[in-house]
Amino acid sequence: MADLRDDPYARYAAPPAAVGAAPPSRDAPAEDAGSAETVVTAGTGGSTEVVGTAERVRLLLAEHPVLDGHNTLGRLLGHTPPHDLEFGESALDTDLPRLRAGGVGAQFWSLRVPAHEAGHQRAISATLELIDRVRAMIDGCPEGFRPALAPGDLTDARNRGRVASLLGPVAGHALGDSLSVLRAYHALGVRAVTLAGARWADRDGALSRFGQEVVREMNRLGVVVDLSGTREEAMRGAFTVAKAPVLFSHSAARALTDHPANVSDAGLALLGHHHGVCMVSLAPDQTARAGRPPTLRDVADHLDHVREVAGPRCVGLSGGYGATADTPRVRGLEDASCYPLLLAELLERGWTDADIAGLTWGNAARVVRDTEFAARTAQQRRGPSTATVEELDGDQAARQRQNGWPEGSA
Amino acid sequence: MTAPVPADGSLGFLDRARALLTEFPVVDGHNDLPWALREHVRYDLDRLDIADDTSAQLHTDLPRLRRGGVGGQFWSVYVRSDMAGDDAVSATLEQIDVVGRLLARYPDDLARALTADDMEAARRQGRIASLMGAEGGHSINNSLATLRALYTLGVRYMTLTHNDNLRWADSATDEPGVGGLSAFGREVVREMNRVGMLVDLSHVAATTMRDALAVTEAPVIFSHSSARAVCDHPRNVPDDVLELLPANGGVAMVTFVPKFILPEAVEWTRRADENMNAHGLHHLATTPEAMKVHETFEAAHPRPVATVATVADHLDHMREAAGVDHIGIGGDFDGTPFTPEGLEDVAGYPNLIAELLARNWSTPDISKLTWQNAVRVLRAAEDASRALKPTRAPSQATIEDLDG
User: Fold this and answer.
1) Most A CBs within 10 Å: which of B40, B57, B59, B90, as the mutation test of the A interface?
2) Alpha carbon B149 to chain centroid distance?
3) Dihedrals φ, ψ of B70, to 5°?
4) Residue in A132, A183, A409 nearest the CB of B149
5) A35-52: per-residue pLDDT in tens?
6) Whole-complex ipTM
7) Which class does domain B13-262+306-403 fall in?
8) Arithmetic mean of pLDDT over chain A
């Protein structure tokens, strides 16, 4: 069922002069929207109380936790001695106490394997290994995580105080150019695929005919299309084909930081037009400017920019955590517990409660939900696609299917 | 083939066979329809509809499965053993995918079966319990997580090798390599036991069979192998291994492939292969030139023909050596170009049962052969898995760790 409470605008009336307003100064009078102290009308009683920014953040996160677009913890599981995710693991930047402290209520667990695995004929198996580890992690902490396969599971997990765990995105080059492999991933619980990295997503920079069919089949199955890192022309191709809103699972604004995984203003405008969501990356290399180490305020600048260009309903959060504790981070955003600091900064910059609720949960949850709804419609119109890359792209470099062998296997 | 009608007016063997199969239908251990659909029509199920008569192209379609009294089928999700790495895995996933599409397309006839209970439920509903078996460890790309993914996707047995050796297991039809199972190979068997996937020892070298039987904590199967004592071919099971089955609880499922079961056909095939090699061709080549060479050979040397009786000879011996609780049927239809007389396609099973009735096989023996042993062995694998899971975590071993 649709989670009606996901609509951030139903509960929080947008305060006047919020969206697009110039950030007020820190010394502004308390009653100004967006200042450090503000008036919140509580949903139930209608009583009015004055609360501080930290308390506002806490209240907002309680209702609209962070649906985080990118965590690579799966890569570390199994490589190092078993970690105690449940009670805290200081060697890592992600564990349950810190996810809880950060107000993370849902997590896309990245399953992207390095591109060189494809060269070693190991991309699919390596992806299956990641799926195996992340599923084991989720099943191993039933008090902390709940698997999320459908939009209703997001709400359900949130209501139970568990971190809804979405499998994905998988790397495009781990599809083995086969829609059957895509369907197998879906059957194993994967709910997002990154197009970037696949040959069919970069045919001279564009989405090939097979790539278009991959997007259609993802829409039919209910797998979220992730465009992070996709070339500009391929991205436009995906927007044209996609019947459901897309995500950028970990991208910041190219206008502020020139990084291949970041999105240009043109891309962000298109995203706004198509009601997708750019989950803004907190990674230092994607948010640094002018050669100085990035701070929390730089990340906030990226969030401001994406909200400005794509719109407040098209922006989300993507921590990019899931690394060892010594990994370089944006100052102030060292681990998964730091979201409240970032949200406080945004409130002080004049983001409304509704904007924050959309940023943390509502916008990305809407993409997951719309993807599922679009799939239900598509499944009534078409069956599984049997198209092959050879057929659609006529690619000589495609997988060699040698002939002249017997059909038998006796 | 018509069954003789006994003088006392009781039902003929063929009619009795059909009646028996109504109650205890055949669970067949190996059918290569998925690969045939890949080769013939690139998985386009509209172009080759198994609800119709497909006898011009296939051994298998739904009407013939029904006539043959088939109530359970392990569909092989075989991929060629010259495939390796991701290519083998993705091709296996494509094979699994087409089985899923068949189940979705023919829900009145085919029922997905993941457990022994599912098989019994399908039998009660009059549908064909459809299971999947992977044919060759190359399908898991040396990755136990990939093995677990195949299980999650519904695969319920894996043949350890196909025609070629793996780094961790020797095939029956290759030169000795690691001499059976390597340390990683033994870990594969243990992990299969833990997840509840049957270990299939068809195609593997006798050394591998013995290693696997020494290590396994659950019953094994031979999804399509006959008796080496009756026909000395490496694809068949030697007596010492058959004799291990009662203690293990496993099941050897007799296969129909003439070149494995009929000594004359073994010899003929050897000479035909030599002839191909003498003409500078691969013995399995099917190019027009190769077919011509082969036709010339066949015109000069008529191909020996196996019959229902040939298969029954194997079953008689296997029942003797392994016991009636440890035998089954795995025809390998659509996995072999030639089939025995009377077992031309999947409609043929009643002829085999009639032959066994004529050889005085009892009704309980036949019901074990056709249905009960196969269901029991899957249930035993589930039980073993249930017992092992609390004691062992999913294995994280790699081939590099164990085999260096």
Assistant:
1) B90
2) 21
3) -85, 125
4) A132
5) 444 444 444 444 455 679
6) 0.93
7) alpha beta
8) 87
